[in-house]
Structure formats: structure tokens, C-alpha cells
Amino acid sequence: ALERTLEGVHVAISAGGTREPLDPVRFIGNRSSGKQGYALARVAAQRGARVTLVAGNTADLATPAGVDLIRVGSAVELKDAMHKVAADADVIVMAAAVADFRPTSLTGHKIKKTSADPDPITLTKNPDILVELVSARREGQLIVGFAAETGDDTTSVLDYGRAKLRRKGCDLLVVNAVGAGLAFEQENNAGWLLSADGSETPIPHGSKAQLASVVWDAVTARSTEPQ
Ligand code: C5P
């Protein structure tokens, strides 16, 4: 039987990619499918949680049974929705691919083609929603972030993940090794689950539902720990 280990727990999950508008018909976006966030929502609901899923742009995914879905477009809309939902959430998982930048100005009308070269697009930094949620954290609230990393000659995926966990200040960070058939637009995922208390759990290559199970197991273990 499925253990309803998240009964009575309200979880807020962000999923998918943000779209940063340039004009009424154009945007800057990314390739996030939302599959990992949806898998997190589905598994949490199966374990008895009340789930609010805040979704940006995603592939054509069915809303998991029993999940409340809020649709957003841009990073700023996602930020507003997450702050609202966070006020009442016990656990927050930021699985969305939030654009780091947005076009500085949003033209009210469609940008016209002219014979001259177009003006360059200037960009403005988006807020870091995860960092904001950590600063606004309520007593007892658990916050989980995601990091898609590639290693390089000097630093491993894991080291980048450790640094990001410290910088963001969240309780748990899922580090995804990206590239080579992993993560974005893929059915499978692999990586590590890093905890602010220093524990590091390797996540074997497997389905996004399996990764979700690792995350919810860790959340449950933390909330049942003696305080
Ligand atoms: O800094 P980086 O984008 O790698 O961090 C990834 C984590 O931070 C993810 O959990 C993502 O949802 C979150 N994030 C955010 N706001 C941003 C950028 C990323 O909440 N502007």
C-alpha cells in the first residue's frame, strides 16, 4: 500500500519555464518541459499532501489528480504567485526554470519590422525567487531548490551544487547533472540531494517520479526528526 506520509502537509511546487515578454506576441523562453515539477506534484499528492502547483510554460502535461494548478507566464508573475502560496505552505519546492533576465521594456504593441537593423534587446535581472522565499521563510517551513549544473575542468557538478546550496540558503538542493541525455526535455534525471545539514544522497539515474520519491522521502525524514 502507498504510504500517505505527507497527509496534512501543504506543499507548493513551481514547475516549467518562464516566458519573458518582449511585446504582446513575443517572448524569451527556455526548454524546460515541467516534467520534474509535475512528477513532484503527482508523487506528493499520492502520498496524501495538499498540493499547489504553480506552472509556467510546460509541455502538454496532464494535471495530476487532486492537484491545484495555478498558471503563470513571466518570472515576476511566478514570484507573486509563489509568495502568495508560500504564506500557507509547509514545504516549497522551486523546480521551475526561472529566466535570469527579462527584456527591460515591454512594448505595448508588436515591434515592427523596418529596413534598418533593430534596436538591441536590453535585459534586466529578474529577482531570485528562491532566495526571496528563504528570506521570507515561516517557522518550520522547509524549502527545496533545484540546480542544473555541468562540471568543468576545475569544478565538479557536486561542488557547484554545494556552493549553490550555501548561496541560496535553502534546506535541500537537488543537483541535476545536465547534458548528455539528462534533465531538460528528458524522461530521466540523476544527481544528488544535498542537505544544509551536510548530508549528500546520490540520486541514481531514473525516472523523474523516482527522483521525486527521493525528495519526498527526505522531506518526511526531516519533519519526523526529533526537534
Ligand atoms: O541560480 P540558479 O538558476 O541555478 O538556481 C536554480 C534554483 O533557483 C531553482 O530552484 C530555481 O527555481 C530557482 N530560481 C529562482 N529565481 C530565479 C532563478 C532561479 O527561484 N530568478
TrEMBL record:
Pathway: Cofactor biosynthesis; coenzyme A biosynthesis; CoA from (R)-pantothenate: step 2/5; Cofactor biosynthesis; coenzyme A biosynthesis; CoA from (R)-pantothenate: step 3/5
GO CC annotations, alphabetized: phosphopantothenoylcysteine decarboxylase complex
E.C. designation(s): 4.1.1.36, 6.3.2.5
Sites where the protein binds CTP: 100, 110, 127-130, 146, 164, 168
GO BP, one annotated term: pantothenate catabolic process
Entry keywords, A to Z: Decarboxylase, Flavoprotein, FMN, Ligase, Lyase, Magnesium, Metal-binding, Multifunctional enzyme
Cofactor, free-text remark: Binds 1 FMN per subunit.
Catalytic activity as recorded in UniProt: N-[(R)-4-phosphopantothenoyl]-L-cysteine + H(+) = (R)-4'-phosphopantetheine + CO2; (R)-4'-phosphopantothenate + L-cysteine + CTP = N-[(R)-4-phosphopantothenoyl]-L-cysteine + CMP + diphosphate + H(+)
Domain DNA/pantothenate metabolism flavoprotein C-terminal: 6-220
Keyword Lyase: yes
Annotated GO MF terms: FMN binding; metal ion binding; phosphopantothenate--cysteine ligase activity; phosphopantothenoylcysteine decarboxylase activity
Cofactor dependency: Mg(2+); FMN
Phosphopantothenate--cysteine ligase, as annotated region: 11-227
Family listed: In the C-terminal section; belongs to the PPC synthetase family. In the N-terminal section; belongs to the HFCD (homo-oligomeric flavin containing Cys decarboxylase) superfamily.
Function noted in UniProt: Catalyzes two sequential steps in the biosynthesis of coenzyme A. In the first step cysteine is conjugated to 4'-phosphopantothenate to form 4-phosphopantothenoylcysteine. In the second step the latter compound is decarboxylated to form 4'-phosphopantotheine. Catalyzes two steps in the biosynthesis of coenzyme A. In the first step cysteine is conjugated to 4'-phosphopantothenate to form 4-phosphopantothenoylcysteine, in the latter compound is decarboxylated to form 4'-phosphopantotheine.
Protein's recorded name: Coenzyme A biosynthesis bifunctional protein CoaBC
Phylogenetic lineage: Bacteria, Bacillati, Actinomycetota, Actinomycetes, Pseudonocardiales
Parent-protein start and end of this portion: 175 to 401 of 401
